[in-house]
């Protein structure tokens, strides 16, 4: 199976204002755009390149090791789409520019953030008050509400993530003899990104929530030859709930 890089979107307006966004469709802030640029440029310097639709294989003439990204899959929400576009503009082997559309960005509804139910649009500071501590898993950085009315639960997200991974494998492996030469980039959200990681490595979702915070524009590597504890592709200090 191809290697999968999972990126969280940059800071959006709700993140900046301490609002639980879920399916709310707010744009990136200036900081969020810069976060995406910073990480994309680090990927560029590390040898990542987004192939054009006409390219079937990485450039074999290059003397620098290249991590070839076959396609970018993005959540349909604006904050993820903007982040994906920034990544594509910087990493593309063609000259697109940050604001241009790339033929290698595909929107996937399956990458959308968790449905927050009745917590959608509420202040992050209200989680324990609204849900009750017994319905919240707390870490040193964030409170995860578990089962408010109308929300997807984390087991729901694990099921969605497993279905997504099957789809990704079917779409990008098949009979392609070059599949192992490629990587894919998924641009998604905090809660769901962590559950993709948990589903890929068959880890307990509660333990994954406690292990690390998936910050804005952070990137995780999912690969069969790569241990889950080394999944963070780049060390960052960015934090937003």
Structure characterization notes:
- This protein has seven helices and eight strands.
- It has 241 residues and is of the alpha/beta class.
- Strands 1, 2, 3, 4, 7 and 8 form a six-stranded mixed beta sheet that branches. The chain has a two-stranded antiparallel sheet with strand order 5-6.
- β3 (67-74), α3 and β4 (105-107) form a beta-alpha-beta unit.
- α2 runs parallel beside α3 and α5 packs across α6.
- It is globular.
- Mean pLDDT is 87; it is low at 96-100.
What labels describe this entry?
241 residues; alpha/beta; 6-stranded mixed β-sheet; globular
Summarize this entry quickly.
With 241 residues, the protein is an alpha/beta fold. The protein has seven helices and eight strands, in the order E-H-H-E-E-H-E-H-E-E-H-E-H-H-E.
- Poorly predicted regions are 96-100
- In terms of DSSP E residues, the strand content is 15-25%
Mean pLDDT rating: 87
Mass-distribution shape: globular
Tell me about the largest β-sheet.
6 strands, mixed
Q: What's the alpha carbon Rg, rounded to whole Å?
A: 17 Å
Terminal CA distance reads 32 Å
Helix segment tally: 7
Compute the number of strand runs. 8
How helix-rich are the residues, as a percent range? 25-40%
Strand and helix order: EHHEEHEHEEHEHHE
Secondary-structure content class: alpha/beta
């Amino acid at each position: 199976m191809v290697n999968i890089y999972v990126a969280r979107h940059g800071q959006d307006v709700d993140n900046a204002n301490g609002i639980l966004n879920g399916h709310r469709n707010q744009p990136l802030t200036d900081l969020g755009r810069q976060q995406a640029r910073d990480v994309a440029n680090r990927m560029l310097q590390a040898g990542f390149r987004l192939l054009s639709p006409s390219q079937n294989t990485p450039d074999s003439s290059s003397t620098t090791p290249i991590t070839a990204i076959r396609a970018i899959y993005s959540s349909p929400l604006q904050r993820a789409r903007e982040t994906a576009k920034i990544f594509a503009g910087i990493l593309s082997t063609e000259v697109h520019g940050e604001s241009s559309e790339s033929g290698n960005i595909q929107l996937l509804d399956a990458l959308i953030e968790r449905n927050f139910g009745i917590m959608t649009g509420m202040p992050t500071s209200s989680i324990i008050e609204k849900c009750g501590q017994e319905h919240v898993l707390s870490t040193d950085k964030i409170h995860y509400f578990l089962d408010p009315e109308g929300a997807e639960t984390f087991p729901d997200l694990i099921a969605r993530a497993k279905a997504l991974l099957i789809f990704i494998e079917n779409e990008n492996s098949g009979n392609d003899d070059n599949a192992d030469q490629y990587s894919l980039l998924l641009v998604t959200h905090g809660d769901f990104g962590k559950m993709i990681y948990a589903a890929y490595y068959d880890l307990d979702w509660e333990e994954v929530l406690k292990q690390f915070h998936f910050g804005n524009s952070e990137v995780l590597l999912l690969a069969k030859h790569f241990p889950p504890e080394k999944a963070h592709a780049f060390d960052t200090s960015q934090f937003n709930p």
